[in-house]
Amino acid sequence: MDKLRRQWAYKAALDLTGKSGNSESTGFGMNLRATLQGPDDRLEFFGRANLEETDGQKSGDDARAGVDYSNQLNDAWNWYVSSEFGRDVIKDTNLFVTTAAGFGYTFANTETRFLYLRGGFGYRFEDYSVSSGREELSAASMDFGLEHKEKLKWGNLVNRIKFTPAIEDFGSFRIYQDTAIDLPLKVDAYSVRLGFANDYDSDADLSGLDELDTTYYIRLVLNWQYARSDFLNW
Q1: Is the pLDDT of residue 57 over 50?
Q2: What is the pLDDT of residues 167-209, one digit of tens each?
Q3: CA triple 161-166-169, angle to 5 deg
Q4: CB within 8 A of 161, min separation 6: which ones?
Q5: Dihedral angle, C-alpha 118, 11, 178, 199, nearest 10 °
Q6: Is the pLDDT confidence value at 46 over 60?
Q7: pTM for this structure?
Q8: Per-residue three-class SS string for 142-175
């Protein structure tokens, strides 16, 4: 009976980061994720924030949060809905919002490999500061995502990619990529993650900024689950 119940799992991480692109600096970041996993569906809440300073001045200030729900149609196919919002002070973005819905396909789901691809349609909204010189964006979009996990002898390889182009202008897009190696520690709940992330905004040059920001990080990750499997059993 317990296998049919949903169960919460949590992940929290603290980063030491370095960045190149619109700025070169070091700083700190934080990631939070809560997942409610059921036998046929999954609900995720997530958020991350990054703050950086260079020579005593702010050189990085961005944050994002979102929710993602997926429901299995069979062992391979599922449908999903998702929404994400955030801001990026350095890129003069006061607010960006993406919503999407579509279908996903699991190519591999074994003890050593997970490979998942999704695609659908959505909506993009982006509001910029007056000084940026960019017009507000409100457009229908496409949504593509890839998630890959590989279990190695000494750790885990994790890859995530999200690509959201506008439908009317495919050359207007955002792409976010995160690649990391997880190294487990002796304490089961903890691991160290070494990785890098690329955030590409094809229209950033309209504000006189670089399109690509690359973040390198060392991350301490804590994973834990709620002890009672019947918590919020809905």
Answers
A1: yes
A2: 998 888 999 999 999 999 887 788 999 999 999 988 877 777 7
A3: 125
A4: 144, 145, 146, 175, 176, 177, 178
A5: 90
A6: yes
A7: 0.84
A8: EEEEEEEEEECCCCEEEEEEEEEEECCCCCCEEE
Residue-wise pLDDT tens digits, 109-142: 999 999 999 999 999 999 988 777 788 889 999 9
- Radius of gyration of the chain measured on its C-alpha atoms: 19
Domain 70-225 carries which CATH code?
2.40.160.40
Q: Any idea where the domains of the chain sit in the sequence?
A: 70-225
* Apex 103 CA angle, 101 and 109, nearest 5: 130
- Left if phi > 0, otherwise alpha if psi is -120 to 50, otherwise beta: which for 208? left
Contacts with 222 (C-beta within 8 Å, 6 or more apart), sequence order: 11, 12, 13, 189, 190
Distance CA 205, CA 214 (A): 16
Helix, strand, or coil (residue 73): coil
